[in-house]
């Protein structure tokens, strides 16, 4: 077993163990931290296959953005002594069956798929290529979806501000 | 003395001598361990030197002498402090979440290590040279706030929690300004790779070549990175007069030392980043066209240039800390969202226009 295999299995083990812990932990902040580790493991795998851009995006958006947001909201709403209720037995069994079904389905597809080794390694995804594709308006460019998503995000942001902003109480001067 | 100017020979010869004796997988593992050890030693040295420097600089600004008793000029003071911290009892609150409480200092330390790994220290002396260098650094350094938030919450102390929430709001806001001010220079370089950014400054540093927008970006970077590392005048997260010690109130002994060390390491990291992007990193002071002058400057090895520039920015940050009074939380957020961010966005537009017209050197 080579060095890369050892590193791969370490990351895989980290991801599996911490994803499992994230859904079974009864303390909500610990669950968020386990989720952080699972996402970090995914980023590690991306780094391993030399897909640096996606790895950095994974770290910025998921680990640095979403998990921090989750932790922040937990800090504002919950107390250190609170514990989540244990789920009912039938709920646990049901979700376990659904989860196992997903695992079996994925394994079935992966093991039955015949992977054809490719002679060329494909396009090297460096920053320039990604940037030119993302903002390209010629064939194979993504500028339209990129702009549409920006408008959608802007709308969501304005909506959030409108919902969150309360009118000033009247009569207080 | 050739190796002092170009570390490629040194790293190559280490790699080759290892390759002769071991097989490839083992070589990679040994090199990982060597690089890790080198960074740990650097970390420890930085802690020792910077803590001493901070105390001496603060004494200088307050017209005191600072530590003078342990060793000549008090140089062994930090070493004595380390021994004291090692012998202290690690205390944990009864109701604290022990797992998260113990985890938090390590998260901060690990993010500091991961960021430092991508910095170019001298020619050929860089552990990770991605083509997404700057993006990687901003991605990894955004994880550090998790450690602060966890430390504050798991301590089960209201001062810690308030400190953590303040610091969370602060770091998340100021991250934007740091990223955008670096982006202003990326427009000029056209690359995020740190080694390419350094090479592009061979005929002058970007702060000189980029005119006024580069200077504005540098000033914004200094302010925002001081805030991002939770240093004064933005040290609201620890504000000793109101919050005892903020998020690390309940920590003692080595775990406290980790927070302390990480703060200084982060200061070094942002200074190194600023030096690399704005002041040419390890590139000596060159002026395009002046061959003789450039050759004279090349006699000073790059690693001294790098550490010289970093010390200059660190000195600026210490100067801020001991000169300005602490801001209030609303002033802090106003400064970021109403002043720095709009100025920064306008600055990027101006810079893009300059680059489009070719009005830079």
Question: What can you tell me about this protein's structure?
Answer:
The complex is a heterodimer of chains A (173) and B (361). Chain A is built from 6 helices and no strands. Chain A is mostly helical. Chain A folds into 2 domains: 85 residues, Four Helix Bundle (Hemerythrin (Met), subunit A) (Up-down Bundle), CATH 1.20.120.1200; 42 residues, no CATH class. Chain A is extended. With 361 residues, chain B is an all-alpha fold. Chain B has one domain. Chain B is 70% helix and 0% strand. In chain B, α5 packs antiparallel against α6. The longest helix of chain B is centred in the first third of the chain and has 38 residues. Chains A and B meet through α2 and α3 of A and α3, α5, α6, α7 and α8 of B.
Fraction in helix of chain B = over 70%
- Mean pLDDT of chain A equals 84
- Specify the overall morphology of chain A: extended
* Rg for CA atoms of chain A: 22 Å
- Our count of helices of chain B gives 16
Low-confidence stretches of chain B: none
């Amino acid at each position: 077993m080579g060095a890369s295999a050892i590193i791969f299995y370490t990351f895989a083990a980290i991801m599996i163990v911490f994803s499992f812990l994230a859904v079974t932990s009864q303390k909500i902040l610990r669950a968020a931290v386990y989720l952080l580790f699972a996402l970090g493991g995914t980023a590690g795998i991306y780094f391993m296959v030399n897909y640096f851009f996606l790895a950095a995006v994974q770290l910025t958006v998921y680990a640095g953005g979403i998990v921090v947001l989750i932790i922040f909201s937990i800090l504002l709403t919950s107390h250190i002594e609170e514990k989540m209720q244990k789920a009912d037995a039938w709920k646990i069994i049901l979700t376990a069956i659904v989860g196992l079904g997903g695992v079996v389905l994925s394994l079935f597809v992966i093991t039955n798929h015949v992977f054809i080794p490719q002679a060329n390694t494909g396009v090297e995804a460096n920053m320039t290529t990604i940037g030119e594709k993302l903002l390209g308006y010629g064939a194979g460019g993504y500028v339209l979806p990129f702009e549409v998503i920006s408008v959608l995000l802007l709308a969501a942001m304005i909506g959030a501000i409108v919902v969150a902003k309360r009118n000033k109480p009247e009569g207080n001067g | 003395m050739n190796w002092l100017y170009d570390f490629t020979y040194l790293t190559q010869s280490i790699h080759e001598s290892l390759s002769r004796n071991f097989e490839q997988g083992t070589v990679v593992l040994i090199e990982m361990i060597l690089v890790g050890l080198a960074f740990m030693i650097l970390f420890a040295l930085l802690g020792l030197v910077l803590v001493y420097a901070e105390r001496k600089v603060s004494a200088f600004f307050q017209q005191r002498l600072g530590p003078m008793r342990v060793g000549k000029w008090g140089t062994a003071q930090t070493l004595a402090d380390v021994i004291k911290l090692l012998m202290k009892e690690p205390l944990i609150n009864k109701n604290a979440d022990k797992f998260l409480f113990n985890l938090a200092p390590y998260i901060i330390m690990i993010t500091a290590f991961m960021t430092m790994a991508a910095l170019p220290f001298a020619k050929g002396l860089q552990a990770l040279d991605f083509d997404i260098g700057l993006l990687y650094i901003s991605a990894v350094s955004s994880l550090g706030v998790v450690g602060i938030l966890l430390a504050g919450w798991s301590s089960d102390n209201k001062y810690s929690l308030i400190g953590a929430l303040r610091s969370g709001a602060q770091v998340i806001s100021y991250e934007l300004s740091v990223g955008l001010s670096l982006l202003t220079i990326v427009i000029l370089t056209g690359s995020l790779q740190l080694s390419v950014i350094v090479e592009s400054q061979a005929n002058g540093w970007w702060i000189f070549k980029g005119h006024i927008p580069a200077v504005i970006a540098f000033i914004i970077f200094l302010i925002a990175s001081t805030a991002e590392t939770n240093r004064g005048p933005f040290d609201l997260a620890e504000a000793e007069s109101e919050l005892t010690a903020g998020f690390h109130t309940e920590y003692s002994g080595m775990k406290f030392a980790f927070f302390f060390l990480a703060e200084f390491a982060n200061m070094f990291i942002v200074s190194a980043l600023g030096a690399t992007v704005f002041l040419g990193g390890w590139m000596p002071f060159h002026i395009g066209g002046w061959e003789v002058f450039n050759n004279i400057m090349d006699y000073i090895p790059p690693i001294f240039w790098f550490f010289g520039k970093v010390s200059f920015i660190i000195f600026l940050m210490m100067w801020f800390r001991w000169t300005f009074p602490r801001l209030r939380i609303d002033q802090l957020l106003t400064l970021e969202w109403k002043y720095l961010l709009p100025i920064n966005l306008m600055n990027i537009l101006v810079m893009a226009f300059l680059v489009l017209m070719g009005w830079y050197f």
